[in-house]
Amino acid sequence: MINVAILAYDGCWGMGVFSATDFFRIVTLLEQHLGVAQSYTVRVLSVDGADIRLASGHLIRPDAALNDTDNCNLIVIPPLEGIRLAQGFEPDPQTLQWLAARKRQGARVLAMTTGVCYVAAAGLAKGNLLATHWAFTRQLKKRYPQHDFVAHQSFMHSEGIWSSGSLGGGFDALLEMLAQDLGDHFAQLCATHLLVSAPERLSPILPGHRNHQDQAIFKVQDWIEAHHAEAVSLAQMAREAGLTERTLKRRFQLATRLSPNVYLQKVRIDKAKKLLLSSGMSVKSIAYEVGYENVSFFVRLFKTQVGQTPGEWRDYGL
Known about the structure:
A 7-stranded mixed sheet has the order 5-2-1-6-7-11-10. Strands 3-4 form a two-stranded antiparallel sheet. A two-stranded parallel ribbon has the order 8-9. A hairpin with a 2-residue loop joins strand 10 (about 155-160) and strand 11. By secondary structure, the chain is α/β, with parallel strands linked by helices. It contains 14 helices and 11 strands. It has 2 domains: about 1-165, 3-Layer(aba) Sandwich (Rossmann fold); about 200-315, Orthogonal Bundle (Arc Repressor Mutant, subunit A).
């Protein structure tokens, strides 16, 4: 059983707390539907187990105190109301000690947007990139100069610490961890049930390819994900980045460890995975939908990348 601890503290945003609890509720419901054992237990914790007043002013009652939960495999830190950060908010020292101890024991950590202040204050992830809300990168850098903060719509990951720049990025990070724990097929199935967007518009589950600081390449990645169904050329990508084709290929490979065209293929296959699970569309229609006119080529590419044909993927585990 994987134990998830969601850290609640005065001034945190309730949507961060409940997006995580609801995410794992969806996971449990899918496991029940598939007839498999439950994989996660989830508890909301506060430093002393007392009620927490959220940023909205509402009270929530945690399940336990921090010291009642030593065995954590994943810790989720919801975002802090930004105005409190500007007013000099300092994370509770007892919470920081607990967080650092759990991380040394091997727990994964997800810090949602401004919740990353807990990671920095605990002295974790020094020298690594940390994603946060775009409005607070400078403020956090000034307060924690040993850390590098970047505005990022999705998430960053390094050494067991995930950080997100948006609520949607928090879902992206949880989906990546779910893929690590229960496999890509289950993570894609969960993504199609999140109801935060149409399945084909969800961010791709492509672990590790956005952990960089090249803003031009971020822009190209966003553009590819928005225009993957079109006849995309390297020249178009280069124009979007404001780079020559040669420079684009070099910087894209350096930042993502993939060529631009392979990244495009992976995005298209990821979108196809979601459509196969969430729709009754034929394989031919899905091939056209994600940008391939040659259905045979699409099927061969899908099998090469996934290890199954589109039909086998759709039926796997169901």
